[in-house]
């Protein structure tokens, strides 16, 4: 699965089928997850001091196929915006992606789509868990990393980094499950987010995308409810 799919599972309550963060925050984080995945795969990077593009702007290192249709579309979007700041690209990638990811997860039997109406008028959509095996395995990896305060796995590091940026690590992983307080768990997440789980060649790109998500959600407040 894509990092964005894993992140969406962690940010969707298994029982209610609703996101545990605001839609705008989830969309931004999903856009960041797509960009981080492209960076980890060597397709996208941030320009350095000796690049043709202005330092800190996004560039495409490898325009070839990624092996995933949605990720190919994301790469094409980055290509169209090459030379832009990470902020504008993350926002563009996050637009309308949540529904498409929910559809993929539903088609794969991971989630179950439910439709209804609020007050008998407004359409409502929910995606409760249908098969939680994959999400359980992801959460187990996150728990191990947070318990130890470190990880060498780029995907686990990326997920924790995004959850930390959203201030949602304690929602995706129950602090008591890893023998930590909420404060301690978030501290471990911060340490991992700033750690060396990513190769130096893509660290700049990942740090930029992480900063974009933090900046955009720094004044937001999460609704109540348990994690996915």
UniProtKB/TrEMBL annotation:
UniProt KW Coiled coil keyword: no
Membrane topology type: Peripheral membrane protein
Highest rank taxon of the organism: Bacteria
Entries under Pfam families matching the protein: GPP34
Annotated InterPro entries: GPP34-like (IPR008628), GPP34-like_sf (IPR038261)
Membrane keyword on record: yes
Keyword annotations: Golgi apparatus, Lipid-binding, Membrane
Location in the cell: Golgi apparatus membrane
Family matches, as Gene3D superfamilies: yeast vps74-n-term truncation variant domain like
Database matches in PANTHER family: GOLGI PHOSPHOPROTEIN 3 HOMOLOG SAURON, TRANS-GOLGI PROTEIN GMX33
Protein name: Golgi phosphoprotein 3 (GPP34)
């Amino acid at each position: 699965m894509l990092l964005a799919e894993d992140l969406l599972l962690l940010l969707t309550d298994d029982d209610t089928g609703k996101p545990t963060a605001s839609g705008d925050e989830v969309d931004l984080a999903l856009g960041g997850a797509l960009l981080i995945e492209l960076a980890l795969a060597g397709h996208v990077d941030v320009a350095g001091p000796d690049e043709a593009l202005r330092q800190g702007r996004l560039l495409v290192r490898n325009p070839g196929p990624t092996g995933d249709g949605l990720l190919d579309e994301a790469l094409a979007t980055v290509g169209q915006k090459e030379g832009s700041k990470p902020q504008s690209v993350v926002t563009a990638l996050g637009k309308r992606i949540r529904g498409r990811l929910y559809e993929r997860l539903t088609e794969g039997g991971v989630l179950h789509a439910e439709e209804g109406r609020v007050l008998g008028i407004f359409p409502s959509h929910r995606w409760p868990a249908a098969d939680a095996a994959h999400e359980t395995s992801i959460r187990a990896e996150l728990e191990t990393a947070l318990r130890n305060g470190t990880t060498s796995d780029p995907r686990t590091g990326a997920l924790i980094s995004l959850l930390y940026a959203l201030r949602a690590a304690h929602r995706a992983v129950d602090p008591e499950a890893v023998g930590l307080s909420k404060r301690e768990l978030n501290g471990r997440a911060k340490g991992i987010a700033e750690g060396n789980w990513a190769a130096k060649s893509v660290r700049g790109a990942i740090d930029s995308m992480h900063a974009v998500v933090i900046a955009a959600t720094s004044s937001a407040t999460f609704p109540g409810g348990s994690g996915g």
